[in-house]
Amino acid sequence: METPLLFLLAVLLFVFFQDWKYRRIHVLLPLAIFLFSLYIIYLKSLSFKNMLLNTAFFLVTLGILVLYMSLKNKQFLNPFEHYFGLGDLLFYVAVTPLFILPNFIVFFILSMVFALVLQFAFKKVLTEHTVPLAGFSALFLIIVLIKDYCSFYPKLTLI
Predict the structure, then answer these.
(1) Deepest of 21, 26, 69, 76, by most Cβ within 10 A of its Cβ?
(2) Degrees (nearest 5) of the Cα angle 121, 124, 127?
(3) Residues 24, 146: Cα–Cα separation, whole Å
(4) 2-15 pLDDT, tens per residue?
């Protein structure tokens, strides 16, 4: 396995453990994920256009969520206080270089479903009522990256 990919997997594993234990991640972790992802894409001579499209998709999706929740509650709701953590936002932006847009949409949806399934599976073990979304998504990305690296089948990521 390539060294940058190993470092990326290690950082993702650290995100999972930190978010699981503390329900927050250090701001340098998404930055490290982003830099390793950029480096991996740079080594493969791939376009950075995908990163911008993925970020735009994610921000539009978040904007629609904020608009919907604000209209539903008849007042502006800060999504970072009620529904979504800043670490979650930074995590999803950090992984944007790893995908083309259709695959990023698939990853985004599947990581949300994966987090929901794990939250229900560990409901009795978890003492907090919040979902460690960045952590569960990092765990899901670890699984996807290992699968993509080891298989010849169509890949979800650009590695």
Answers:
(1) 69
(2) 115
(3) 25
(4) 899 999 999 999 99
Three-state SS string over the chain comes to CCHHHHHHHHHHHHHHHHHHHHCCCCCHHHHHHHHHHHHHHHHCCCCCHHHHHHHHHHHHHHHHHHHHHHHHHCCCCCHHHHCCCHHHHHHHHHCHHHCCHHHHHHHHHHHHHHHHHHHHHCCCCCCCCCCCHHHHHHHHHHHHHHHHHHCCCCCCCCC
Tokens representing residue 51 in the block = 């990163």
As a whole number of Å, the end-to-end CA separation of the chain is 11
Tens digit of pLDDT for each residue in 89-107? 999 999 999 999 999 999 9
Which pair of tokens denotes residue 57?
């998709």
In angstroms, the Cα distances linking 3 to 39, 40, 41, 89, 98 are: 11, 10, 13, 26, 16
* Angle formed at CA 86 by CA 92 and CA 24, multiple of 5 degrees: 100
